[in-house]
Specification:
The protein has helices at about 10-20, 45-55, 60-65, 95-110, 165-170, 230-240, 245, 295-315, 320-345, 350-360, 365-375; strands at about 1-5, 25-30, 45, 70, 70-75, 80-85, 90-95, 115, 120-125, 135-140, 145-155, 170-175, 180-190, 195-200, 205-215, 215-225, 255, 260, 270, 275, 275-280. By secondary structure, it is an alpha+beta fold. It has 2 domains: about 1-40 and about 95-175 and about 265-345, FAD/NAD(P)-binding domain, CATH 3.50.50; about 45-95 and about 180-265 and about 350-378, D-Amino Acid Oxidase, Chain A, domain 2, CATH 3.30.9. α1 links the parallel β1 and β2 (about 25-30). α1 (about 10-20) packs parallel to α4, α1 packs parallel to α8 (about 295-315) and α8 (about 295-315) runs antiparallel to α9. The radius of gyration is 21 Å and the shape is globular.
Length: about 375
């Protein structure tokens, strides 16, 4: 029987699989997609994630070649502040298609097995002792109707913000506010790109621009629950056209044909798992991407989940595993999650944006410190 069955081959699932396989655990990763695959994301990793990946010996390949990001440019309707991480600390700009495929390759190289085309239908539950325990997964091969029950000593749910497992177990929900939608595209020919990411905050949403090197940039418009525009492309162009200073930079820009849509964004969970199953990555809670630390939180959460899985396998008991993981998550980034919630609430209204702009004008150092904090470089 498998030691660990992991639903989801994204960064969280792959990192957890790598750490577990290195210990000799028998690990199987399943995902409905075939890799490499495209993924809507800001395509950046912050300095904190750079340090984490280096600390667990997951650095190299496309990460070493990726353009460095030295900080963030934040603008409002009338103010702008550029915050740099300082001391030679940088993040990276890397397309998720490349990052995810490379991390999955590292997991397979460590000894994990990967099966694409497997759709997670739900947890394999055992309630013979009166308390439901997850004993694996129920899977369906893509394009086929039959289902397969795959048992495992432990299961990790790393199947994303719309996690089938978290929802089936009653662990996740969308908060009532704010409800945002993201529209992502790639463009070339944008003027004024530099070595910093950009976040342009306006009433009702924000526009992120990440330079990816070679003149290519990720452009992501995040809106409220009623995006303006009849098509996803129109939504992105409307977000750009709202501000003449931004629109002028796109005068000669050419967009890729693909526009990705994701939402509602924020997802919260009541617990990071149940007996027999632990959540990792966005499945354990998806934060609004504005602060740029979502991928760091997702992967650090996967590291914590993998460590707890090893504890369970060594002890042969689920007792206390969920509570220990919850405490470890609070200790690791409880403050960052609260910061993220504060920021996403702050930019939700016209008046709060004006107050934030006034603070930026009076004390820009506070904004620069917030950039370093969000990037885990403070």
């Amino acid at each position: 029987m498998l030691d660990v069955l992991i639903a989801g081959a994204g960064p969280a699932g792959s990192v957890a699989a790598t750490l577990l396989a290195r210990t000799g655990a028998r690990v199987l990763i399943v995902d409905r997609e075939t890799f490499p695959r495209d993924k809507l994301c800001g395509d950046t990793i912050n300095p904190g994630l750079v340090a984490l990946l280096k600390s667990i010996d997951l650095w190299g390949g496309p990460l070493e070649r990726a353009p460095a990001l030295a900080g963030m440019l934040l603008t409002g309707p009338s103010e702008r502040v550029e915050g740099r991480y300082g001391s030679g600390v940088t993040g990276r700009a890397i397309v998720r298609r490349e990052l995810d495929a490379w991390l999955l390759d590292r997991a397979v190289a460590a000894g994990a097995r990967f099966e694409p085309g497997e759709i997670v239908r739900g947890p394999l539950l055992d309630d013979s002792h009166g308390v439901p325990v997850v004993r694996g997964l129920v899977l369906a091969r893509r394009g086929q109707g039959s289902q397969t029950r795959v048992p495992a000593a432990m299961t990790i749910g790393a199947d994303g913000r719309r996690s089938v497992l978290a929802r089936a177990l009653g662990l996740s929900h969308h908060p009532a506010r704010p409800r945002r939608w993201a529209f992502g595209a790639y463009a070339t020919g944008i003027e004024g790109l530099s070595d910093v990411g950009e976040m342009h905050i306006r009433p009702g949403g924000y526009l992120g621009i990440a330079p990816l090197g070679g003149g290519l940039a990720n452009v992501c418009a995040v809106t409220g629950p009623r995006p303006v525009g009849p098509t996803p492309r129109a939504v992105v162009h409307h977000a750009i056209a709202q501000d003449p200073s931004i629109a002028s930079r796109f005068a000669r820009a050419t967009f890729d044909d693909r526009i990705s849509v994701l939402g509602p964004l924020a997802v919260e969970t009541s617990a990071p798992g149940v007996d027999g199953l632990l959540l990792a990555g966005d499945a354990a809670g998806f934060v609004d991407p504005m602060t740029g630390d979502g991928l760091h939180i997702a992967i650090r959460g996967a590291v914590l989940a993998a460590r707890e899985v090893l504890t369970v396998l060594e002890a042969g008991s689920f007792d206390g595993s969920v509570a220990r993981l919850a405490e470890a998550r609070r200790d690791a980034f409880g403050g960052k999650v609260r910061f993220n919630r504060f920021v996403r609430t702050l930019v939700d209204g016209r008046w709060s944006i004006r107050l934030a702009e006034r603070a930026a004008a009076i004390a820009p150092g506070l904004i620069r410190h917030a950039v370093r904090y969000a990037g885990d470089a403070a």
